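Inverse folding, one chain.
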């Protein structure tokens, strides 16, 4: 009964969304698109999600393997929840699912998700640094962006090496 209700709610939401779309105005937009890029760009989502699922499976402790299928379900569920919930709540709910399904303890699940989010930020900053190197206009704004990205990248690398600055210390009594 719950599945039927959730299916009906989802179909109702989709019906409302699709009623708002003006399909007559979309035709010229799609005709003006570069077809190979239009096909290629959404197809890149699949390998990205599979690589992320594989990474989550690899990060699990030795005896608690998820498998790429289960990891992919958790990644996709977290992605959907991140669209409707504030900030990284979908990822935190992913940690809750890891605990509820008996894959790992609560503290390890949350640590795993936080590490994964930090790893994502580190890779994003690395790609930003690469893009800034290729950026043709080297003005004041460029140097401000470069300083921000470099300091963020250095700070996260320092965290990744187990420095004392990233360890949560108890409050003094």
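Residues assigned per position:
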């Amino acid at each position: 009964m719950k599945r039927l209700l959730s299916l009906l709610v989802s179909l109702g939401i989709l019906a409302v969304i699709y009623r708002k779309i003006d399909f007559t105005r979309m035709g010229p937009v799609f005709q003006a698109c570069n077809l190979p890029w239009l096909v290629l760009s959404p197809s890149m989502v699949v390998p990205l999600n599979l690589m992320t699922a594989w990474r989550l499976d690899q990060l699990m402790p030795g005896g608690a393997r998820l498998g790429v299928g289960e990891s992919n379900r958790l990644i996709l569920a977290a992605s959907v929840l991140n669209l409707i919930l504030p900030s990284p709540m979908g990822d935190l709910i992913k940690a809750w699912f890891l605990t509820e399904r008996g894959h790992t303890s609560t503290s390890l699940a949350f640590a795993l998700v936080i590490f994964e989010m930090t790893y994502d930020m580190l890779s994003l900053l690395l790609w930003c640094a690469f893009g800034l190197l290729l950026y043709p206009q080297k003005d004041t704004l460029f140097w401000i962006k470069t300083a921000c990205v470099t300091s963020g990248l250095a700070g996260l690398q320092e965290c990744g090496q187990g420095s004392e600055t990233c360890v949560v210390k108890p409050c003094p009594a």
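The radius of gyration is 21 Å. The CA atoms of residues 116 and 145 lie 24 Å apart.
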